[in-house]
Amino acid sequence: MTHLPKIELHLHLEGAAPPAFIRGLAKEKHVDISGIFDERGDYSYTDFWDFLRVYEAATSVLQTPEDYARLTAAVLAESAANDVIYCETFLSPDFCGGRDLGAWREYLHAIREAADRAEAQDGITLRGIVTPIRHFGPDKAREVALCAAETAGDWIVGFGIGGDEKAGKPKDFAWSFDMAREAGLRLTAHAGEWGGPESVRDALRDLRVERIGHGVRAIEDLALVDELAEAGVVLEVCPGSNIALGLYPDWRRHPIGQFHDRGVKVTVSTDDPPFFHTTMRNEYDRLSKAFDWDDGVFRAINATAAGAAFCDEATRARLQKRLEP
Ligand code: ADE
Ligand code: ZN
């Protein structure tokens, strides 16, 4: 099953940057971020909040559209090598041009050109989900939502929110989500990762999202689990991320198996793969061993992901065809 064609719905573009790539850019730009790496050259952090600090320090060397084009090429080459045929990536105008609409358009243009080259070369399709950073606050999120609304279309297909789930409440961001929805964007939100089941309920009620990033802490409220199954809410589950960040002690005790057994629509993604020493093949391999899942389970998970992708219907039909055995 590790070689099956795969769909990944939850990938942060900056978070997918290999440490050697970031070190190379830092050297070119004479920026000293050596403190974010350990002696082996991997990213070094102590917990989720330290991870966010290291993530933002790494991102500080991505300073031009060309840097993002190079990043996109590197990330998609790695994804394609893991049999990923379709990927949705979180992009933040906060990092791409400081929320200036003109600059954001230039970053987006460079990213799309790199994605088009990867598609022609490796047959991997990329789409973007614009994502404010929760701990940057609701005012910045509004500016991000305006950038998202102005660039919504066949490539920017979604709007989400990441960052520190303990900063503020989902309803603080309702204006931004309303703006994105009115622009035709499909909606997801990180919730139920560092916040409990209430955080998932709040995101569903106040932001009216159709997918939840992570959502795993919903397992602490089985009535909510049943509601998720009933409503067909799709979870973008990133087990390797949750384990690396200490939410669950090991793969067997990760709740994805319980969600699956209770009929919740689960999908599998890597979140920020080099930070968590994972890849899509590794996620499939570890899940198959932990839960004794065979090809049939992973095919069903990818069918769920194809159905939940925010792309247009022609693209979805092409993906579904490629997923056929
Ligand atoms: N940004 C990058 N990775 C994240 C995660 N796992 N949770 C919230 N925000 C993030
Ligand atoms: Zn994430």
Automatic annotation (TrEMBL):
Domain of life: Bacteria
Swiss-Prot/TrEMBL cofactor(s): Zn(2+)
Occurrences of domain Adenosine deaminase (ranges): 5-323
Molecular function in Gene Ontology: hydrolase activity
The protein's Enzyme Commission number: 3.5.4.4
EC category name: hydrolase
UniProt xrefs under Pfam families: A_deaminase
Alphabetical keyword list: Hydrolase, Metal-binding, Zinc
InterPro entries: A_deaminase_dom, Ado/ade_deaminase, Metal_Hydrolase
Keyword flag RNA-binding: no
Keyword Hydrolase: yes
Family statement: Belongs to the metallo-dependent hydrolases superfamily. Adenosine and AMP deaminases family.
Protein name stated in the entry: Adenosine deaminase
Protein species of origin: Acidimangrovimonas pyrenivorans
